[in-house]
Specification:
Elements lengths: L7 E5 L9 H15 L3 E7 L6 E5 L3 E6 L3 E3 L2 E2 L7 H10 L4 E5 L4 H12 L3 E5 L9 H6 L14 H14 L5 E4 L5 H10 L6 E5 L6 H5 L4 E4 L8 H8 L3 E5 L13 E4 L3 H14 L5 H11 L2 H16 L6 H9 L5 H22 L19
Helix pairs in contact: 1-11, 2-3, 5-6, 5-9, 12-13
Length: about 375
C-alpha cells in the first residue's frame, strides 16, 4: 500500500499543539525528523478554541484541526462512528499509507485506528504512559492521568513527607517546587506547619520557556512519580546538568546511566536516603560533562530511524479479512468479544455505505508540498 522508501503517515491524537506536554512534543519532533528523512507526515487532532481547519507548521508539517471540541481533559467525546467520514476523507485526500496513533487515553486516536483497520490500512500505536489495571489502587491512580503537575500520580504526597525530613537534616538545602494542581494545597500546608516558607519555594505552573531557567537554578532534580513510562522531565534536568533522584517506577530506571541518577522505592524513608546519597556525590558531578553526554545519548533523528523500522514491519504484515478480525475479537471474552464484533460489523457496514454515497474517485487528492531540508 505504499513505497517502503517514502511513506505517507497520519499521526492522530487528541493531544497536540497548542496544548503542551510530552505527547505533543513527541508527535511534533518525531514528525519533523520523519519529514527530513523524506516521508510525508500529516497530523490530525481536534480543534483548539478558534484553531480549526488546516494549518501548516515548520517544515511543511500539515495539521488537520477537525471541528470536534474536547469533552474532558482535552479528550473528544467518544462517538465510535462520528469521525469515520472525516477520517476516511483525510486518508484518501492525503494518500496515507500508515496511521500512527498516540496515547491510550485519546479517544480520537482509537477511533482513527479502528476506522483505518476497517478500511485496510496498516496502523501503529504508541502508548506514552504505563498505567496499571491489576488492582483497585492502580485504577484509582489512573484517574489523575492527564491533570498537570501536582497530582497524586506524580507523588505529591511523597513530597509532603520527604521535604520536612530533608530540611531537618540539611539546614542549607532549599526546595523549588514547580507545577500546579489539586495537591498543591497539601504542600502549602506542609510548608506552613514546618515553618519552611523561606526554604520551600512554590512557583506554580511554569511556562515551558522558563523551564530551563528554573532547572539551572538547582543542583538535584527530584522526581517522585508513582507511575511513569519514560519521564522526559528527567532528560531535561540531566541536560541542564542536574543529578536526578527518582522513584524506581515504570521505565524510569532505563532512562539514564547509573551515575546520573539515584533510584529509590516510592517510600518516604527510601526517598530521603536517596537524597542523602545524591547530596554526598554532588561534588563529583560536572554539569557541562553531563550535558555533553546527554547530547549523545538521546537524539530525535535516531528515534525517527527506529520508528521507520517499526513502520516497515507494520507494512509487511499480512492483510486480514473481516472474518479473520472478528474471530480475534470473539476471543476477547464471553461478552466483550461479542460487543467488539458488533462494533466492528457496524463500522464495516458504514464504511461500505460511505463508499457508495461518496466513492473514493470523487474525493480530490491534494498535491504534496515538497520543501528542501538541510542535511542536519
Amino acid at each position: 500500500m505504499g513505497d517502503s522508501k517514502r511513506q505517507r503517515i497520519l499521526m492522530v491524537s487528541d493531544f497536540f499543539y497548542p496544548n503542551f506536554g510530552g505527547v505533543e512534543n513527541h508527535i511534533y519532533l518525531l514528525s519533523q525528523c520523519l519529514i527530513k528523512l523524506g516521508h510525508k507526515v500529516v497530523v490530525m487532532t481536534h480543534a483548539y478554541g478558534n484553531r480549526s481547519g488546516v494549518r501548516y507548521m515548520t517544515g511543511g508539517l500539515k495539521v488537520y484541526y477537525v471541528p470536534w471540541k474536547p469533552f474532558l481533559m482535552q479528550n473528544t467525546l467518544p462517538t465510535f462512528y462520528g469521525t469515520l467520514p472525516i477520517i476516511r476523507t483525510i486518508l484518501i485526500r492525503e494518500q496515507i499509507s500508515l496511521v500512527h496513533g498516540h496515547q491510550a487515553f485519546s479517544t480520537l486516536c482509537h477511533e482513527a485506528l479502528m476506522h483505518a483497520r476497517t478500511m485496510g490500512y496498516k496502523v501503529v500505536f504508541t502508548d506514552h504512559s504505563l498505567y496499571g489495571f491489576a488492582d483497585v489502587g492502580s485504577i484509582h491512580m489512573n484517574k489523575d492521568c492527564h491533570q498537570k503537575r501536582l497530582v497524586y500520580r506524580k507523588g505529591a504526597d511523597l513530597l509532603v513527607e520527604v521535604i520536612p525530613e530533608v530540611c531537618r537534616m540539611y539546614p542549607n538545602v532549599r526546595f523549588i517546587v514547580g507545577g500546579d494542581g489539586p495537591k498543591r494545597v497539601r504542600l502549602e500546608e506542609m510548608r506552613e506547619k514546618h515553618s519552611l516558607q523561606d526554604r520551600v519555594e512554590m512557583l506554580g505552573a511554569v511556562p515551558h520557556a522558563r523551564v530551563r531557567s528554573v532547572l539551572i537554578s538547582g543542583h538535584i532534580f527530584l522526581n517522585s512519580s508513582l507511575t511513569e513510562a519514560f519521564c522526559i522531565a528527567i532528560l531535561e534536568a540531566a541536560s541542564c546538568g542536574l543529578l536526578t533522584v527518582s522513584t524506581r517506577v515504570g521505565g524510569v530506571p532505563e532512562v539514564l546511566p547509573d551515575d546520573m541518577i539515584v533510584l529509590a522505592e516510592p517510600d518516604p524513608t527510601d526517598m530521603v536516603q536517596a537524597i542523602k546519597k545524591a547530596i554526598s556525590i554532588l561534588p563529583m558531578i560536572d554539569p557541562q560533562d553531563m550535558h555533553n553526554r546527554m547530547k549523545k545519548l538521546y537524539d530525535w533523528h535516531d528515534v525517527a530511524k527506529r520508528t521507520e523500522i517499526v513502520y516497515d514491519r507494520a507494512l509487511k504484515c499480512s492483510n486480514q479479512s473481516l472474518l479473520e478480525r472478528l474471530s480475534r475479537y470473539l476471543a476477547c471474552g464471553a461478552w466483550a468479544g461479542k460487543l467488539f464484533c458488533l462494533v466492528m460489523i457496524i463500522d464495516f457496514l458504514l464504511w461500505r455505505l460511505l463508499q457508495l454515497w461518496k466513492p473514493a474517485e470523487d474525493i480530490e487528492v491534494v498535491p504534496d508540498i515538497v520543501l528542501s531540508h538541510d542535511e542536519d
